[in-house]
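Here is one such tokenized protein:
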Amino acid sequence: MSDKNRRRIKHGKLIKQNVSLPVEITSNPDSNQIINSIIEYENTYQLTPPDTKRFNPSIIQKIMDDLLTENLVDQTYNSMECGAKAIELAGLIKSRVRHMDWNRYRIVVQVTIGQHSDQGMAVASRCVWDENLDNYACVNYQNKSIFAIAVCFGLYLD
């Protein structure tokens, strides 16, 4: 294992430490490159977040609603395009949520896009979590051609 570029944050200071990193595998063995470094936070022994740094579903719902409306307002259903659009939207939501200064939360985003054809559909998610610290936000969007469901989970890491 190659142990390079692991960064630890200890009491506000960034410390370089060794870690094995993922590599991009290509057909040319000489072009394998390190994709990114891993950041690991030093244990603060903080079992609960301060009230100001708790995952707030109402803020996340607003972000997701704005992103879905911006990106899907004129979208028509195409299975290939909608699959790629769902992945793109999940990435956008995740990046916006990460800027919210909730460092000790793992963010998981799921976006489902389907054809709006006057049929029923049930979407369910199940998780094992701490009901006092973990939370989620869910938003529905639909136009004449498609519907979209976005769910964002915030799971506290102690």
Residues 1-5, 9-13, 18-25, 30-35 have pLDDT under 50 and may be disordered. The chain has two domains: 6-41, 51-156. Strands lie at 6-10, 13-17, 23-24, 33-34, 39-41, 105-115, 135-142, 146-156. Helices lie at 57-72, 79-98.
